Please model this.
Amino acid sequence: MAQAIPSYAMSCFDLTKSLCDAISAMVCRFWWTQQDNEKKIHWLSQETLCSRKEKGGLGFRDLHLFNLAMLARQGWRLLQYPDSLCAQVLRARYFPDGDLIGVTEGPGISYAWRSIVRGVKALEKGIIWRVGDGTNINIWLDPWIPDGVTRRPITPRGQTLVTKVSELIDPVSGEWDCQLIKDIFWEEDVIRILGIPIKHGMDDLLAWHFDKKGLFSVKSAYHVLHDCYIRELKQQSGESSSGPSHESMRGFRWKDIWQLKCPPKVRHFFWRFTHNSLPLRKNISRRGMEIDTRCPVCWRLDEDGGHCFLKCKYVKECWRALNLEDVRINLCERTSVQEVSEHILGLPENKSLLIICFLWSWWDARNKANVGEQRRSVTDIIHRARSVLFAVETEEQARTPSVLTDRCRRWAAPQPGTWKINIDGAFWENERKGAWGFVIRDDQGNAAIAGAGSLNVVMDALCSEAHACIAGLQAAADQGMQNIVLETDSQILRKALLSEEYGRSHGGVLFREAKFIMAAMFGSAEVVFVPRCCNYAAHEVARLGRGRDPDHPVFWMTPLPCFVSDILARDSTEPGAS
Model:
């Protein structure tokens, strides 16, 4: 709540870093004390708390970076809505050439515009050009390659005269000029460039690189800025920094803690346990406080994490009562608290959850003894741990819906007078290669056309699906088909074809091309999602495309080859074939 109070002001103005730090200090004091007039130990640094949960933090906001992310949203709106009244006024006053990305702070500008300029500079860390015809994109200065931190070629320019991306496109075929690209760029850049889909006649678009849909969000921008800040810290202070990226925390799977099926208070306890930030008496003593460091339960030895949870004579009784003495002995051999947590999380789920709930229950009992209350019995401690675990399992069973199988479903013929196009794409991530296939059938289930081809370089499976879609639509249009139903087993492709949601994604030019064909070439076109068992024929035909020459796809007309006919026969007679 405290971090949300200044959000409105942050969306309009650049607050000073000293003010942001003062607010953050107030938030941290409240987090550790919950009282205005108390001063308690801050067990973890503000940098750790501001790290993402998967990196060992709690996801608190760095208010200065969040301020810049909010201002970046204003810059994004000016880019997306250049004809709005606000954009026209600001353009006439501050950037009459229309180049918002190239603006700089100058004398005499207003405080509001200075804030927007700083937001635009933050925006530059995540924007990318989606290539259409490439006329607006500078090869060496603009971010347009969807890989790496800079999103620019790693190949040095040297004496190369080629400047615009449009010069890398063959004007005859409308495809990449492979030979020219191989002559100019290093092999790594060649692979990345050839994987960018392009279509003749499409406009270049600005998109947000760190979102699969290409859409800007404050959350994504904040994460990008925070990652840049962490990289700068590493460069300045080296890997030995005591910040959230220090050696003892690197490599630990923090996300596993937050995915535990247990109450939030138990997950938070285990997070603090893994950070060794619990107020154990030895930890308090190390902070400079004069305190009796003996264990408040057994009053025999100094209380550190190992003694409290593994070696105290009363906690040993609990481990034995749970029949987990072998686990306790194994944990005692670990040299750090992160290794202890890793071992616990690596156990079978039921055992792991039982141990974590037990550690939480023991810590609660220890706290009661620490303030002078009567020590709880072993039975009470174990009962409380099992009760928490049982409540979680009951709630999980109540929320789990019944799963209906699709294995009884099969391909169904379309309505009379309608053609059904089944499409599918294949993708091999290690090779960055793909394949596509489609089958077109009439309202009697008779196949009219099938096609398959390979993709020499493709970025992801969704682009393979989009290529299959375009090939199937074009084949149907060439045959004069008017009413079609397009079936795909990709929910994302269906969304991309029915909305503008993915228009700025990596495959945006392919989606726009497919939508143009559907709108211009057909009287009616419907896009339907079906499970894989109803798309078996297209799936198998796509696999046939892997061995094809990328420049020579194959199309089969009636009568179809025997191996294609066999695939279609199995599609009709074997529901759930795979």
